[in-house]
């Protein structure tokens, strides 16, 4: 005998009572349970806490994907006139966003839809072969949110490397986790480039994101986490950077990438793809640890060895050049030292911190030696004997490395000043000199352009040191009178607030 439950409404009462809501929830639960039993679906785990609106069944994914594919075809320019035999050589033209004033078009042939080993991949993945894709991605990021969240630009610059994006089609087919992440990012990049605010297209991108998260959740829950889960996590970080939807702020793929990398371990960084991704991830990890006031595991000996093994001995300035990797190996020591200094200042310890001071001085000396060796190779300044004749790309890369060196040199001297009274005046002067050099470089470049993105963080550090110089000078004079060994807590915290650093 079935039990019937009713919801009573009339012309004068259209609202639902508490009992009505209870009835609806009860019936919904029973219907859902019956449906799962019928499909033999069982219970589902959701370790990543994926919202329900992002989770769809395979049938829904298939249907919505077909609908979306037919819909976005209308967003493309009409194909060139030609015979039916030419259709395989025609590809959609990407309409460049007017907001960023992109006026060029690129056509990607379907002949490139095969990997070197003969495997095919979906047509939408061809977008990663678009010439100048990195510049277009960064231009979109700048136009969307240029004055907020300094670290977001650093993430975009590091993840938007041509060498990484160009490898994606060749990675397609290795695992469902990676394939779903590639499809998700390809759709998000396309939405960033095409002039369309269509709700259906955005809805489908959310579905692709949910599917990628679901696959990543399954991969991370398996017995063996491999490089595809790491790659997928970092790709979803690129999706996170390109996406301006605040509803997605509940998940942080940068932190997830760190945990996956730790799970892999330094001994499993073997292939060239692994090494490429490690170098790209390294600076993100160092910067997040520095500004998040936490330790950086890349300073451990095994990880230092893994970084050193990524070096490519070649005369060109690339991500894995000796200049780049050796600087990263030095910078990996900074976050742990900065965290310890923060603890000493917060507790106003009176005893000398000789070991910590020596470590900071060692970091400064290592940075200085790096600059003495590499500076003449990283710029076109100087006489004809030292002029290296770098290309424009290599010159920009060299300028980026030098400003990153100056950034951490300024920070190291400022932190040394905070805990060592006898060296305080010298360290503060060195910090201000490094900040002045950064400011000089920043003045010659437009920080709101793609080429200036790499300087934004350095400029932020330089401004924080210069703006707080008077307060630090006054606090240092008080420290001398009171015989305190550390800078005033309020002065230190105020500077960290200007810097955007967690205390």
Please provide a brief summary of the model:
Helices cover 59% and strands 0% of the residues.
What does this 3D model show about the protein?
Residues 1-42 are annotated as: Disordered. The protein is mainly α. The protein is globular. It has 2 domains: 58-79 and 89-264, no CATH class; 336-503. Helix 4 (150-159) packs antiparallel against helix 18 and helix 14 (334-347) packs antiparallel against helix 15. The chain has helices at 18-39, 58-72, 133-145, 150-159, 162-165, 168-171, 176-193, 199-220, 227-242, 253-264, 272-292, 301-308, 322-331, 334-347, 354-374, 392-419, 424-443, 453-467, 469-482, 489-499.
Question: Which terms would index this structure?
Answer:
2 domains, 503 residues, Osmoadaptation_assoc, mainly alpha
How many runs of DSSP E, i.e. beta strands?
0
End-to-end C-alpha gap: 65 Å
Runs in which pLDDT lies below 50 for 5 or more consecutive residues are 41-116, 381-389
User: Treating each run of at least 4 consecutive H or I residues as one helix, how many helices?
Assistant: 20
Itemize the secondary structure elements and their pairings:
Elements (H helix, E strand, L loop, with lengths): L17 H22 L18 H15 L60 H13 L4 H10 L2 H4 L2 H4 L4 H18 L5 H22 L6 H16 L10 H12 L7 H21 L8 H8 L13 H10 L2 H14 L6 H21 L17 H28 L4 H20 L9 H15 L1 H14 L6 H11 L4
Helix pairs in contact: 2-8, 4-9, 4-11, 4-18, 7-8, 7-9, 8-9, 9-10, 10-11, 11-14, 13-15, 14-15, 14-16, 15-16, 16-17, 16-18, 17-18, 18-20
């Amino acid at each position: 005998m079935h039990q019937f439950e009713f919801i009573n409404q009339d012309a004068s009462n259209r609202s639902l009572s508490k009992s009505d809501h209870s009835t609806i929830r009860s019936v919904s639960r029973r219907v859902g349970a019956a449906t799962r039993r019928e499909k033999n679906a069982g219970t589902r785990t959701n370790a990543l806490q994926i919202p329900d609106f992002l989770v769809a069944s395979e049938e829904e994914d298939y249907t919505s994907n077909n609908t979306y594919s037919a819909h976005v075809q209308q967003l493309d320019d009409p194909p060139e006139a030609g015979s039916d035999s030419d259709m395989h050589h025609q590809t959609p033209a990407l309409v460049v966003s007017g907001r960023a004033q992109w006026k060029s078009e690129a056509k990607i042939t379907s002949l490139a839809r095969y990997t070197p080993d003969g495997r095919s991949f979906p047509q939408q993945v061809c977008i990663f072969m678009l010439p100048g894709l990195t510049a277009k991605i960064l231009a979109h990021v700048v136009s969307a949110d240029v004055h907020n969240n300094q670290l977001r630009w650093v993430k975009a610059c590091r993840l938007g490397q041509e060498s990484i994006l160009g490898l994606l089609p060749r990675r397609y087919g290795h695992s469902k986790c990676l394939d779903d992440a590639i499809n998700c990012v390809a759709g998000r990049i396309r939405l960033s480039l095409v002039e369309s605010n269509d709700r259906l297209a955005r809805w489908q991108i959310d579905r692709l994101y949910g599917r990628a998260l679901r696959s990543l959740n399954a991969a991370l829950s398996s017995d063996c986490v491999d490089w595809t889960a790491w790659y997928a996590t970092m790709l979803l970080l690129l999706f996170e950077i390109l996406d301006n939807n605040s509803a997605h702020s509940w998940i942080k793929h940068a932190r997830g990438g760190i945990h996956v990398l730790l799970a892999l371990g330094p001994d499993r960084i073997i292939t060239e793809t692994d090494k490429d991704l490690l170098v790209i991830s390294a600076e993100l990890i160092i910067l997040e640890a520095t500004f998040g006031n936490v330790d950086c595991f890349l300073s451990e000996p095994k990880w230092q060895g893994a970084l050193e093994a990524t070096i490519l001995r070649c005369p060109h300035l690339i991500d894995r050049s000796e200049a780049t990797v050796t600087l990263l190996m030095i910078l990996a020591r900074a976050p742990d030292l900065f965290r310890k200094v923060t603890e000493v200042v917060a507790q106003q310890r009176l005893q000398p911190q000789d070991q910590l001071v020596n470590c900071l001085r060692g970091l400064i000396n290592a940075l200085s030696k790096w600059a003495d060796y590499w500076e003449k190779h990283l710029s076109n300044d100087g006489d004809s004997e030292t002029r290296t004749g770098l290309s424009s790309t290599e010159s920009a890369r060299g300028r980026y490395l030098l400003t990153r060196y100056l950034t951490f040199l300024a920070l190291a001297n400022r932190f040394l000043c905070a805990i060592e009274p006898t060296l305080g005046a010298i360290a503060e002067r060195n910090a201000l000199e490094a900040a002045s050099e950064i400011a000089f470089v920043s003045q010659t470049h437009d920080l709101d352009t793609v080429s200036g993105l790499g300087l934004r963080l350095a400029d932020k550090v330089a401004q924080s040191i210069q703006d707080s110089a008077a307060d630090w000078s006054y606090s240092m004079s008080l420290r001398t009178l009171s015989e305190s060994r550390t800078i005033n807590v309020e002065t230190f915290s105020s500077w960290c607030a200007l810097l955007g650093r967690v205390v």
